[in-house]
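Appendix C reproduces, verbatim, an entry submitted by the partner laboratory led by Prof. M.T., so that reviewers can inspect both the input and the predicted structure.
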Amino acid sequence: MRTNLYLLISFLCFMNQSVHSQTWKAHDPGYPDPNLGCSSISLVNKDVIWAAHSHYSVTDSLYGFFIDSLSRVTRSVDGGETWNNYFVPIGNPAFVANLKAIDENTAWICGIDGGGAGSRVFKTTDGGQTWNHQASASYDPSASWVNFVHFWNKDLGITMGDPRDGEFEIYTTSDGGANWLRLNGDKIPDPVSGEFGYNGDFDVQGNTIWFGTNKGRIYKSKDFGQSWQVFESGLPDGFFTMGENNRGIFGLTDFSSFSTRMRFTRDGGENWADLTTLPEAGAFWVSSVDFVPGSTAIVMTTVNNSLISGLFRTWVSYDDGLNWILLDIGDNIGWVKFIDPETGWGGRQQNLSGPSNLYEYVGGALQKPSSAVWQAYDPGYPLPNLGCSSIDMVSNNVVWAVHSHFSVNDSLYGFFVDDQCRVARTNDGGQSWKTSFVPMGNPAFVANITAIDANTAWLAGIDGGGGGSKIFKTENGGETWTHQTTAAWDPVASWVDFVHFWSPAKGITMGDPRDGEYEIYHTANGGQFWTRVDGSKIPDPIPGEFGYNNDFDVVGNTIWFGTNKGRVYRSLNSGTDWEAFDSGLPDGSFDFGSNMHGIFYYVDFLKFKTTMRISKDGGATWSDLNTIPENGNFRMNSLEFVSGSNVIIMTTINNSITKGLFRTWISKDDGVSWTQIDEGSNVLFMDFINPTSGWGGQPQVLNGPSYLFKYTGNALTGLLDVHPLEAEVSIFPNPTSNAINLNIEGGASGEYQILLNDNQGKLVYKKVIRGSDHINHSIAADHLPSGLYTVNISDAKGSRSIKVVKL
């Protein structure tokens, strides 16, 4: 699709004026002192959040010393709706190490009185109103430096400080800190010369606790801190975090160059390996990194260029740091802590001025997207992060796809940026892939790919470096590509939009207007020679009109292409003679089905709003389609009439291209009603050759794999089929208050897909169930709002829908 530069510029200006995070929600705890920096966060549960703040110096490249007595603690017991704030008398200046809470009343904080009293541990049992110094942790006022305090429960705790008398200073307690006992030095490996720890640089998983040092070493205890081992991270200094299943990250930031190196462990810190797949090649300072409990997710916040005015980002990885996805660009967030995939908080690092915000994670469950509808395949390109530009299915087994590099931000796909025009082909339904490079040019603007078998395909595109529009052909499965030069495109004035072949000989290619007419060529010999269609056979373009890359459709000998003025050109005789019709929308794209019904849709990219019109006579006339799910408050990703059925399948995005909510919908009645069947897969350029066989491609993300998606069929096939379910289904009670009970009798397949959708079509429950000829299944409904719902039961042969009333 030719990029609209005006939209891109408008979006960038809009972003500069207003950045609103979809990932973090700011909360001001209401301290009486402005511009405190977060020093520690402790999450008890979804409702109870504690945080410590203090004053420290800050420059463009360094957080420095604490500067006054303002050691503040805030606590919420209602998930951040309200906050209570308290002062902790650590000293002046007050060096805060960390805070640990175990419930809404009980917490400990440790820090250093820079005025001479030294390291101290305080406890509160009244929600922070009063804090009592626990003096039996007998840190030396002149020689000790406390780094953390942690409690596993109300009794069992530990606090650790830098070496004193040749050993790290570690105290444990079994009575809530009333009595602290120093651990004997023979239980702790000796520090090396000049070694010390860092404030808050520790982690805990179950009985195991770790702390890091300025020498890149990790101390580890598996018995609540009673005995210790030490391991080398392989870096000379740094920070670390540990997660479930013994995974961990050790990182080192070069503060002068804002660059970061990382290493990864899978055995609890005993062995480490380089992590070389950091986003932006590690050109940032890490503010915080946290493994999300109950998920494979790792969340990382970073800073570029400056701690004061830098670019602050939030990233997530679901595969141990192999790939990173940009979640957010916003404020400077550190001390990120999660207790489950939906519940996390971070604190604003201190700036030169501004609020002392805490940030609640509101970006949705951090779980690796999974789908019962789409199965992801990596074609295995030699370089990552290519975006799909076109797919062509030849048969159930033979699929061709083309990928390329283009710019992308939260709202818009932009220009192609380099020479990477890559093609993938499978001839075994996706089990194996053959990839190739097409020398389109630099940058390579890809239009589309069309294929007739496993060996023969054509590719259209533009050499943005000056070579102009080109068509390439392969006859050996993509091993080599030959430039077909007889389509007389002008290198300066022409812009090819698509190429299509009906057979090994018969083909067509179309480009934007040149010399007052759309540039359309025919071939009858596989592209050896191309002949331009006479302009008298093509309605004239209106001023400023052009087509879009890959915006065409074919049913039999009928072919259509769309324009940026909302018009649809149609030929009933394989492109020899043309008509033009107005869709009634100012711009957009379209698709047609085998019954000559079609949908034209227009997307407002900035507002993520989609408008649709429908035609039932091959595009000659159009009428409004007002029954769009979610009132059209999404960006249309892809829409496809499924060949051999009356079903439309649609993929949509909410809020953001890079981190939005990706959904798959179907309609069996020309868009009058829609049912959501999936959530999580970002699918574009769908192509279905029948109700059981379809593919789509992942558009380019900021950083990640070049996935292709196969429609999984099997139990879901019936969703895209008009045949009724052969099994008998009963649902009771109906109406219901607490549960929806299903009884399936007499089915032969043994595998069924159960979908529950609300009255707007939104998916609220899905499950694949297996059984013999008698299946009972129950869906909890007590949490659902009152209203009308639809239960859809499908197998490989058909489906049935039943309405249910929730009281």
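Confidence is low (pLDDT under 50) at residues 1-20. Additional entries are available on request from the coordinating office.
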